[in-house]
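seq as requested:
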Amino acid sequence: MIKTLAGCVREYKFPAIMSPVFVTLEVIMDVLIPLVMAKLIDFGIDAGDMNAVMKYGMILVLCAVLTMTFGVASSTVASVASVGFAKNLRKDMFDNVQRFSFSNIDKFSAASIITRLTTDVNNVQNAFMMIIRIAARCPLMLVFSVVMALSINVKITMVFIAVIPVLTVILFGIIKIAFPMFEKVFKTYDKLNNVVRENIRGVRVVKAYVREDYEISKFKVISDKIFRDFSQAEKVVAFNAPVMQLAVYTCMIGASWLGAKLIVGGSLTTGELVSIITYAMQILMSLMMLSMIFVMLTLARASAERDYEILIEKPDIADGDNPVTEVADGSIEFRNVDFSYAGDMDKLCLSNVNLEIKSGEVVGIVGGTGSSKSTLVQLIPRLYDVTGGEILVGGVNVKDYDMHALRNSVSMVLQKNVLFSGTVNENMRWGDPDASEEEIIKACETAQAGEFIREFPKGYETYIDQGGTNVSGGQRQRLCIARALLKKPKIIIMDDSTSAVDTATDSKIRKAFREDLPDTTKIIIAQRISSVEHADKIIVLEGGMINGIGTHEELLESNEIYREAYTSQMKGGMGLGE
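struct tokens:
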């Protein structure tokens, strides 16, 4: 894990290395100051020698200035290195997330990924800065101060050394208890982010059903749980401070008592006692800082492990060796296809699907709620991999394609498709970044979006809010259809993507598709029979299996499910579910 995370330092290696170098120089100056102070007291003040006072005073000032200079330098380079490290870590995690398949994302959940990219990265960043600066400073200060104190008087120094093992045992006990608590807190943070994300995305529904109080109470329950868990962990960690303070002051009293006896006995000077006490404070403060670092690293360790999981996660779907980079046509063939989201043959969503679609055909898919219509079409661009069997596009197994080439040849328009913040033109260019103005207008006209776009005050430069919240559901669907058309795909999949438009507009879109996209395979999932009745073939799904295939007329005669749906819709019924 450490090696993987350390790889994110990259171009910031120099400031990361220079930080402990400057820290070392800062510590050397810090350690010299008590020694110079002893000389100042013994040879200057006690001896009444003003020349010595001036000499050692100037050296003391120089040491202080150098300490400040090296301290500022170490802080500066440590800040640059830690911020750069966090930037690279966040980028590497985000890049890997972009390669995730849907099943990888399902494994972590969107809320957890967001927490890991924000809160956890910040914790790791703070820990990295501590490691290259404070964690480097404290051991050096501890060792140098002990060495200098021993060179002055061994007996007094042993007072401080004796307490180190005791404090170490207590510190590791605190860490062992606190770490599982922090792990638990971060998992609860994921749940909190999920609640917030769900509430914001569904805010219109929340307000429509007047469920604000319910959402507030749901948030409060999880927020209170985080408070309780964090408070419990912090109580354990807080035990560290009084223990360290007790050790510091006990040692100071012991050193002062022993030092006074040695001065009276003539074996220790006043300056040496002052310097030893200063070194003692440096030793104990280093121990206190080390204990705080260990506590922070305990907190960061939980975050580091969560970030590491994202970094090492291998996408379930990847290109094979020598992938095919050209999709010949829009023909599709399902051969004995089985599929399970869990990868379990005992929990199949699709079972023994055999289907052949010719390039350029219009294919309708209907079926009741839970019949796996959306699941079926998501296998075509390899958003998921089949559990059994194989799918061929253009005569080639989808697993043999370069994924970019395959998905670039397949456009999907979902019922809940997303528009991004930006102008209409910018949203359209998601389909083709190099599309000309004329191509964008043509795609929008084909999708029956041109008319309402022209009514916007700024036309194609109209700004679309995040998620397309400033356009209606029908307008959003038509814009998404236009965006898909700009890819000039060999296969276009409409997953109930005209549900929010009226039947007349739906009919115009289908007519435009037939006339403008004769060579493109068109797959239409619909609840309305009228949306698919003119298709070359219609597939009826039930329980993840094909119940019937045929034209509208053939299915009216041979398929009971299709006939019932058609009859109920002709009588004004609701028809099939999703």
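The CA atoms of residues 86 and 121 lie 6 Å apart.
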